[in-house]
């Protein structure tokens, strides 16, 4: 058998992504194209993703994004051997646009369709950057929609959730704190920038769920966000100016501390020696710094895909699709539904 080209379609949130990868006969997967259109600017004035706006934007962007991915790869649609699409989890209407497009392309081309899990895609994307994953590894997904620790025992075979947020996602906390501080949406990049100018020890913000009786690998960020809001309110009431860099640095330190401590603890307890960090928050400068330091101390190999691959994109879905195809799994039926609550 020869190399196969897999096309991936992503539309679970506010990014329309179309990616192309090549699956070699030895099972390695290579990135060919990664085209993304984002509706993030249309959501900015609402401070979060508006589902209806996202669905309409996917519909408008799908065909042009497909064209861009093909142009970038120098391939034609007729070169595509299989199509993978995000089946869930995500926003129902947004997912449906990608799933409908994938079905249309798959049936027109007469190639198999694979509905895959968005969370698995965030992990699979790392194989495009750092090669095959070990048989067992831990993945930490931190984005606007998810904050999870996943035990990965074969990317196409078995992914088990070992921890999750009990309230807000890490990126959501960034976005909410940015709003409190009058910084733009999405909040991650401006807070990261301000934090570099501030003192991470200036304010002692709480570390959620780190008590001895708390669920070991679960996260909570809503208390942290409330603590920031209370602190800012108090300062304003007393007529003091808000030291934005110090608030950002102290908040960012609390997030990075909890995330890395729990990830390293889980890796040790589960006896895995590789940690993959992915999702939009993986781009955070303090998180990657602290993760590198703590993983080195614990003898854990740290893998973080480049920021562009960490955020939602079609290449991650193509990559997971390629691994599923290589595993010999059965394709999805053409009446496959989108599943907003799809578990890992
Ligand atoms: O993966 P992503 O693009 O979309 C999903 O939510 O699936 O993640 C977006 C999230 C936003 O909440 C944004 O504020 C956060 O990632 N983010 C960051 C940084 N860059 C983006 N958070 C912290 N530091 C950053 N540098
Ligand atoms: Zn995502």
Describe the structure in your own words.
The chain is of the alpha/beta class and 344 residues long. The chain has 2 domains: 4-125 and 313-326, ATPase, nucleotide binding domain (Nucleotidyltransferase, domain 5, 2-Layer Sandwich), CATH 3.30.420; 137-306, ATPase, nucleotide binding domain (Nucleotidyltransferase, domain 5), CATH 3.30.420.40. Helices cover 43% and strands 19% of the residues. The chain is built from 12 helices and 10 strands. The chain has helices spanning 40-43, 51-73, 92-109, 118-124, 126-130, 170-180, 188-195, 222-237, 244-269, 285-298, 307-310, 314-326; strands at residues 4-10, 15-23, 29-38, 82-88, 113-117, 137-142, 147-152, 159-164, 274-278, 301-303. It has a 5-stranded mixed beta sheet with strand order 3-2-1-4-5, with helices on both faces. A 5-stranded mixed beta sheet has the order 8-7-6-9-10, with helices on both faces. The chain is globular, with a radius of gyration of 20 Å. The two termini are 31 Å apart. Bound molecules: 5'-O-[(R)-(carboxyoxy)(hydroxy)phosphoryl]adenosine and zinc ion. The site of zinc ion has 6 residues, from α4. This is tRNA N6-adenosine threonylcarbamoyltransferase. It is an enzyme of class 2 (transferase). One of its GO terms (molecular function) is tRNA N(6)-L-threonylcarbamoyladenine synthase activity.
């Amino acid at each position: 058998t020869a190399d196969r080209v897999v096309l991936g379609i992503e539309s679970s949130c506010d990014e329309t992504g179309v990616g192309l990868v090549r699956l070699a006969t030895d099972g390695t997967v290579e990135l060919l194209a990664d085209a993304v259109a984002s509706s993030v600017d249309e959501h900015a004035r609402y401070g979060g993703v508006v589902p209806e706006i996202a669905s309409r934007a996917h519909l408008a962007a799908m065909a042009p994004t497909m064209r861009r991915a093909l142009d970038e790869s120098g391939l034609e649609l007729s070169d595509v051997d299989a199509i993978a699409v995000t089946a869930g989890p995500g926003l129902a209407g947004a997912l449906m646009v990608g799933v409908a497009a994938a079905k249309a392309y798959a049936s027109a081309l007469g190639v198999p369709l694979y509905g895959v899990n968005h969370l698995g895609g965030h992990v699979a994307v790392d194989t495009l950057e750092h090669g095959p994953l070990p048989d067992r590894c831990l993945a930490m997904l931190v984005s606007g929609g998810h904050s999870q620790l996943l035990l990965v025992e074969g990317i196409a075979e078995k992914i088990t959730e070992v921890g999750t947020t009990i309230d807000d996602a890490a990126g959501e906390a960034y976005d909410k704190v940015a709003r409190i501080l009058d910084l733009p949406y999405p909040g991650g990049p401006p807070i990261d920038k301000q934090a570099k100018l501030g003192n991470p020890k200036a304010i002692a913000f709480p570390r959620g769920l780190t008590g001895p009786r708390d669920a070991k690998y679960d996260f909570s960020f809503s208390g942290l966000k409330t603590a920031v809001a209370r602190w800012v309110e108090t300062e304003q009431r007393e007529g003091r100016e808000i030291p934005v860099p110090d608030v950002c640095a102290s908040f960012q330190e609390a997030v990075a501390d909890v995330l890395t401590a729990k990830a390293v603890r889980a890796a040790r307890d589960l006896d895995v020696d590789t940690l993959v960090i992915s999702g939009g928050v993986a781009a955070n400068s303090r998180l990657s710094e602290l993760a590198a330091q703590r993983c080195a101390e614990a003898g854990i190999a740290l893998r973080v895909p480049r920021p562009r691959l960490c955020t939602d994109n079609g290449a991650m879905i193509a990559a997971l699709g390629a691994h599923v195809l290589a595993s010999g799994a059965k394709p999805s039926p053409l009446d496959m539904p989108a599943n907003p609550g799809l578990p890992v």
